[in-house]
Design a protein that fits this description.
heterotetramer, A: alpha/beta, TIM Barrel, 8-stranded parallel β-barrel, B: alpha/beta, Elongation Factor Tu (Ef-tu), domain 3, Rossmann fold, 2 domains, 7-stranded antiparallel β-sheet, 7-stranded mixed β-sheet, globular, binds flavin-adenine dinucleotide, binds flavin mononucleotide, binds FE2/S2 (inorganic) cluster
């Protein structure tokens, strides 16, 4: 028997497989396919203080081995989340992680502070890829100082495990990860989507209503993997790997690169129960390699 | 889930008739759709939505060859396994009025099942279907209009609905242009109408929020709130 | 009849289709497949002052809809290039563009100065994605000031058309393009490859001999397209679009995004005569759209 | 270029025999290979190299199902078109010595054509082929060794070459482990040897510089400088 259990700060996870924000709804929708209690954890869709409409359609388009999305963080807002979604997690036996964002630091802090009151929530994942209204629209996650201030402020009002979700659209992602570490983040997750676009040659206009979108899916996994690998050499806090994972082999690659846990995103759309298959695949890999504990795999590619 | 392809024959220009074995316990309502994974590769990556035209001995789907996915789909042979999720979406909302089905092109597909269902309940309905040309037609019932006049009445199927009044309820599916024209007609004539819409989809069951359309009540998801919508709700 | 001819500084190109450095050898190798004189231009493989061995194998691996390469700029060096390759271009009726790099500014400048003497060469493409020895290994192309100094210095010794090839592995590529423009570059080409890696789960080690490689191919085209689109709004010099182009539709997307010309890279390996097919496809698109000049297409997606 | 698949049958465990129509003007030398584009999609993206086992009425290729590409290749049927480039690479360099062909597993493929060629020139050669097991064997000539002893001599094919001396020249192709063992044997026994190597390839004709191997004369390209190399040149 191999051990798949992993720990992150004071949390225990049955296995290192999480599902990525924005690709798993509020979690419960997937119960029609399998018992989501079998997952290491569920990261629900990006939550903001107030409800958001999101971007104009069309919002998604397929690209070679990937997809672009410009959902624009559509969500029901804190109040409805607390009254309608949270109670359903009373009976779900896995870690609930809430992905949050705001358009300025104050919004993040208020949201984190209020979510701190709910015992169903294990951790917060802070999405710093959204545009920072006060800084003229550039993403929070592109400036290490802003990340430091943001995460420090959140840590003051929230004692849950704090994970910082980093954007890959930067020159040096490890630098941002270091800023998160200095601000006492418990972990970083990387990568969010790469910015991209597609133009419709019939209309001669950008295809997405929002012009630009985030590229995800198998196409981007070599990029995410490299960012995890290089960040692993620069920080001491755990890394959660995400980006294009579509089978157990790629999941294992992320763990070997230095990820303590991994997230499945776009692949959930293609194969709703892919995360279960990946858990089984990681178990089989460990058995075949005669390694008794998944934690022993983390970062092995650096040796 | 996987099921067996029982038939995949061309029935009109670029149009194929796919029959699948009905998996045990499979339930569906007219108006719902399946998401098909076309091959085992990462290209095409996402599943493609197809309306269930009808389910009795088999699950019937009519599809038009458009791009990457449907070009591969047409090479499936009897006996091959195909991977689907669903059925997803809402069935048509049945109204207590005189019922008209109006379809254009491949949009006729979901209406076939509705007609079949209404017949089984002994509910009378009138069918009007439009195609570009005779060679595009894949139904053998209903009044037909073709743009080039090669079959039925020459012109748009919308013209066939000129005589409707507010005692009618229309279920419509077809290309955007046709649906827009129908909406204007409905405004003018006063009949009520549900229209079945399309959108690029990633999941098919309401979690990706990718298939939004704009309505007077804000963005709605085609896959979960539709695919049929009351026409007065849509902002084009 | 539609016009496909484009101009760049004082150069004329039969059509806007070039072939990308490192994917077309020294050009002549492709003559076995078609007459390379039909191309808008040929950009030959990265040249350095002295011959270079390149990186240890394995050097390439396939990824979803893409490939990673870590060739490491293997090349025969200036002397052999001048004596063996250049004379063959006397009889080839297309623009020869030489892609150059150095490990420090002085090397670039010397190379550019010496290449300035050869009439067979129409333009130089300056590859600033290679590691800068003096700046501790970070690429030249990540620092706008370094790019400014480098290009200004090259312009002093070389009066050929100067194209600056930009790396996408930066937070703000338009900023680097602006630096190139300030230094009087004649054009920028973007994008070079995205950095990525793959780990072999059998050996638990990075697959490539050099660990990291450059991701190219269809997978990356939405990223390259977006960078061209945003750079077009920030600079006035022509943009040459490159990254994942594999058919005429994607080529046209790049032109609509703002590229005056485009380069075909990885697709040359898959289909050696793809560049000809893309020229024909662009012509057909213009005919179908009843546009009589490819120059009228440039940047239309911004309207 | 495209040609027609004439046969694609399984001939041993995971091993298929692909026969292609010989295109007009097609020339080849034993030792060369073709690059096949497996489908029209971007996945798998790159062409895959396969040795030409032999050309007479047809182009013969033997291939083993390994991963993405070969799993699709095996579904090709008689009459399908397949897209190739090549032939690329150098033919085997013929030596004026007593000739031995030594192949392991699918590495036997290119030696079939060499044997055929030598026979046609009335040059005597001795063939030694190794497989894991009887079920992997796809040749009906030569001396066979299998690791499990189910066919021919039990053990490695390398053991069959113990009697060679410096009057012999060996052409070898097979897995890395076997080739390394052969190199040691060659050092010990003094025979000369050319070995055919593999590498991931993007282009197949010397332009991508991706297929490099390390030699005492610096990096060389398997596709252009090989695929066969004098064994003394290789740095493992
Ligand atoms: C609920 C629902 C039910 C449906 N039912 C049916 C049915 O019963 N029968 C049927 O034939 N079809 C049906 N469709 C439509 C069907 O899903 C599409 O025709 C199919 O997905 C096309 O897939 P493809 O891979 O062949 O084409 P793709 O290559 O994916 O192209 C499909 C379309 O996507 C858009 N698109 C994708 N990429 C781009 C780009 N780069 N630029 C511009 N546009 C782009 C275009 O509109 C294009 O025509 C239905 C759709 C929905 C939403
Ligand atoms: C000159 C030459 C001649 C050849 N002749 C023959 C022949 O006659 N018959 C034959 O059967 N084969 C032959 N081969 C080998 C054949 O080309 C390969 O088996 C084939 O390309 C496999 O393709 P695939 O898509 O099925 O496998 P892939 O999925 O591409 O995997 C193939 C191999 O690539 C490597 N690889 C790719 N990605 C990774 C990764 N992420 N991590 C680790 N390793 C990876 C591995 O070694 C893997 O086994 C020849 C090769 C060369 C170079
Ligand atoms: C439709 C969609 C919506 C997403 N929404 C969010 C979000 O709300 N918050 C967030 O941090 N990341 C979001 N992401 C990014 C994913 O969580 C993930 O980081 C990214 O898709 C890369 O992983 P993948 O390639 O496995 O999908 C979204 C991705 C997709 C495809
Ligand atoms: C094998 C290989 C070698 C390359 N060598 C160079 C080079 O020497 N100089 C350079 O500027 N770009 C080089 N590139 C980058 C390409 O010119 C191009 O910018 C990149 O591959 C993206 O385009 P593509 O997706 O069409 O291949 C190389 C790319 C590949 C795949
Ligand atoms: S397709 Fe995902 S929400 Fe509708
Ligand atoms: S495969 Fe491209 S150089 Fe050998």
């Amino acid at each position: 028997m191999v051990n798949l259990e992993v720990k992150l700060s004071n949390l225990r996870f049955k296995n290192p497989v999480l599902v990525a924000s924005g690709t798993f709804g509020w979690g419960i929708e997937y119960n029609r396919f399998f018992d989501i209690g079998l997952l290491g954890g569920v990261i629900v869709k990006g939550l903001s203080l107030n409800p958001r409409q999101g971007n104009p359609p069309p919002r998604i388009v397929e690209t070679p081995c990937g997809m672009l999305n410009s959902i624009g963080l559509q969500n029901i807002g804190l109040e409805k989340f607390v009254s309608e979604v949270l109670p359903q997690f009373d009976s779900i036996r896995t870690n609930l992680i809430v992905n949050i964002y705001g358009s300025e630091i104050g919004e993040f802090v208020e949201l984190a502070g209020r979510l701190n009151n709910y015992k169903q929530i294990a951790a917060l994942e802070i999405n710093v890829s959204c545009p920072n209204v006060k800084a003229g629209g550039a993403a929070f996650g592109k400036d290490p100082e802003v990340v430091f201030v943001l995460i420090s402020s959140i840590k003051k009002v929230c004692d849950k495990t704090i994970i910082v979700k980093l954007t890959p659209n930067v020159t040096d992602i490890a630098l941002i990860a270091q800023a998160a570490q200095s601000a006492k983040a418990d972990a970083v997750s990387l990568i969010n989507t790469l910015t991209g676009m597609i133009i419709d040659t019939k209309t001669k206009k950008p295809f997405l209503g929002n012009k630009f979108g985030g590229l995800s899916g198998p196409a981007i996994y070599p990029v995410g993997l490299k960012m995890v690998y290089e960040t692993y050499e620069k920080v001491n806090i755990p890394i959660i790997g995400v980006g294009g994972i579509y089978n157990a082999d790629v999941a294992v690659q992320y763990i070997l690169a230095g990820a303590s846990m991994i997230q499945i995103g776009t692949a959930n759309f293609v194969e709703p129960d892919i995360s279960l298959k990946i858990i089984e695949g990681i178990r089989r890999y460990l058995e075949d390699e005669e390694i008794d504990d998944v934690n022993k795999l983390v970062g092995l590619a650096h040796n | 889930m996987k099921t067996i392809v029982l038939n995949n024959d061309q029935v009109a220009k670029d149009t194929y008739y796919l029959q699948l074995q009905v998996p045990e316990g499979f339930k569906y309502e007219p108006g719902q759709f399946l998401m098909l994974k076309i091959n085992k590769l990462n290209e095409p990556l996402l599943r493609r939505p197809f309306s269930i035209a009808k389910v009795d001995e088999t699950i019937d789907i009519y599809y038009k060859v458009i791009g990457l996915g449907t070009n591969i789909l047409k090479s499936y042979k009897k006996g091959d396994l195909i991977d689907f999720t669903g059925p997803f979406g809402n069935g048509f909302d049945l109204r207590n009025k005189r019922i008209v089905l109006c379809g254009g092109g491949i949009g006729v597909a979901p209406l076939i099942g509705l007609k079949y269902f209404l017949d089984s309940k002994n509910i009378t309905s009138h069918c009007f279907f439009g195609f570009n040309s005779k060679e595009d037609c894949f139904v053998d019932f209903g009044e037909i209009a073709t743009l080039d006049g090669s079959l039925g009445k020459k012109g748009s199927v919308v013209d066939l609905l000129e005589d409707l009044d507010n005692s009618f309820h229309v279920y419509a599916c077809g290309p955007k242009g046709m649906l827009k024209a129908l909406c204007e007609l409905a405004d003018r004539k006063g009949f009520s109408m549900d229209i079945s819409l399309e959108s690029n989809m990633a999941c098919g069951f309401g979690v990706c929020l990718g298939c939004s359309i704009n309505t007077i009540n804000g963005y709605k998801q085609v896959c979960k709130d539709g695919p049929a919508f009351n026409y007065t709700e849509i902002i084009w």
